Amino acid sequence: MTTRVGATFSDNGSIVVYGDAAPMIHVSASVRARDTTSGDLLWQAELERPFLSLTIVGSRLLVDLPAERADGQYLNGSVAELVQVVDLETGETLNEVMSDLLIIAAG
Amino acid sequence: MFTKHLVRCPEWDLNPHDSLESEGFKPSASADSAIRAIQTNYLLTGPMKYLADEAVNRSGQSEVTYSMTTTRTRWRTIMLTFFALAACTSNPGDSTASESTAVAKASTDSATTEFTATEPTAASEPASAGTTRISAASQAANEQALLDLAAALDVTRLAAWSPTSDDGPRTIVTVDGSSASTIDIADGWAWADANFIYTTTYNGSESSSSAVLTYDGTIVCEVLGEIHHATRRPDGSIIAAVDTSDDSVESPEWTSVAFDCATGTTQPIEPWIERTEDESGAVVTKRVADECSGSRSMRKETPTAPTRQE
After folding, report:
1. How would you class B121 by CB atoms within 10 Å of its CB: exposed for 0-12, middle for 13-18, buried for 19 or more?
2. What average pLDDT does range B80-91 have in this prediction?
3. Å from B165 to nearest chain A CA?
4. Do residues A55 and A3 make contact, with C-beta atoms less than 8 angstroms apart?
5. Using one digit for the tens of pLDDT, what is the confidence trace for B275-298?
6. Å from B228 to nearest chain A CA?
7. Which stretches in chain A have pLDDT values below 50?
8. Which residues of B touch A105 (CB under 8 A)?
């Protein structure tokens, strides 16, 4: 299993999930999943707010979201608040877990 | 240091390397100096500072036990590094997404497990049925919080940055099965994959030390330089991709090598491209292979502004 913050691959490398191409990862609220062989866009999602990390574990994608800030900015100092559990194949949100621990990797 | 580490992302395998100088590299650490660390709390500043000193005064001792020392975290430096490295993780250009493909909207109205707050600093205190606040302030609470998060996410192995204040320590918490560990990152950066935790400690502006730890906190590889990732071979030995330089010379060249953590032997890794960022924030792409062959090729890319798709 490979886990990267910006672009993360499924266990067998068939799917890559990533956000926008941006200088900072947490300015991107857009997440896309693409077939790494055909290049087909499998799904894309506009999150409620920019994400802090993307982690694939098995058939699920863990999206770490920061605490909402009054000024609407999520740059330096952002603290994790919510882990969104997303179906890797469909992009559907399966579950949400409140946590201020910022996920780096899972297996 | 900020610029240096902004442009040298630990997880990149694509770094400048002059193949003609690879013979000059000598591994600065080997299995002979493997750290024996059994407890659950590691202050990497102590070992890494020792490692740097050790590189200067190699004594040939076969085993080193480090004393744990507390060092105040230089939070701002770490945060600068953190966000600089976050920039490194930006994916390759993907603006050509096929918009005709089905779009799934991530939303909160699907099957959602509610976790509501009880005490912001309490560790996983059960509230009413099905409600838990996973938040923590202390090491024990952090570890319990991560154990709870791992259970909630149904994963057996989990690594996460713990929340911290401006003047507090920066720590990684790991869960491996039913046990949890805490790794203090005093002056450096850390990341992880599903198998290992990686740490890099910056020794001044030009040199750095890296370590590979298992999820139970045991250090299994050390080297002067920056480790991208490590892999365990079928025989149990570990091989790591490392960027390193010969700090004994002025303006040393960075070299990418495959580092055998057991023997300290290395093999060169040929790079293909290097991306750096100039003062204006533009990304400069340099084809290292071309440069090595005498035909340098560089082009500048304007940073991509974030866009939203409706």
Report:
1. exposed
2. 37
3. 9
4. yes
5. 777 788 777 776 655 444 443 333
6. 11
7. 1-5
8. 157-159, 191-194
Query: What part of B 82-101 touches A (C-beta under 8 Å)?
Result: 83, 86-95, 97-99, 101
As given in the structure block, the two tokens for residue B111 are: 């099957």
Which of A35, A11, A63 lies closest to B98 in space, CA to CA? A35
Chain A, 21 to 60: residues with Cβ < 8 Å from chain B are: 21-32, 34, 39-48, 57
B163 touching A (Cβ < 8 Å) = yes
Q: Read off the tokens for A1.
A: 């299993």
* Cβ contact, residue pair B97, A32, below 8 Å: yes
Report, in this order, helix, strand and coil percent for chain A, each rounded to 5.
5, 50, 50
Whole-angstrom Cα Rg for chain B: 21
Q: Which string of b and e fits B134-172 if b means at least 16 CB within 10 Å?
A: bbbbebebbbbbbbbbbbbbebebbbbbbbbeeeebbbb
Question: Which of A41, A46, A102 shows the shortest C-beta gap to B101?
Answer: A41
pTM of the full structure:
0.57
Residue A106 dihedral angles phi and psi, to the nearest 5°: -150, 155
Q: Is the dihedral of CA B10, B13, B18, B21 positive or negative?
A: positive
Handedness of CA A77, A82, A84, A85 (dihedral sign): positive
Neighbouring residues of B194: CB distance < 8 A, sequence distance ≥ 6: A1, A2, A3, A57, A105, A106, A107, B157
Q: Which residue of A has its CA nearest to B136?
A: A100
ipTM summary value? 0.83
Binary contact (B106, A63; C-beta < 8 A): yes
Based on DSSP, count helices (H) and strands (E) in chain B, helices before strands. Answer: 5, 17
Q: Among partner residues A41, A62, A91, which is closest to B97 by beta-carbon distance?
A: A41
What is the Cα–Cα distance from B106 to B108, expressed in whole angstroms? 7
Burial category of A34 from C-beta neighbours within 10 Å (exposed 0-12, middle 13-18, buried 19 and up) = buried
Q: What three-state secondary structure class fits B306?
A: coil
Beta strand B41-43 pairing with B179-184: parallel
CB contacts of B79 in chain A (<8 Å) are: 76-77
Under 8 Å CB-to-CB from B35, ≥6 apart: which residues? B47, B64, B65, B66, B211, B219, B222
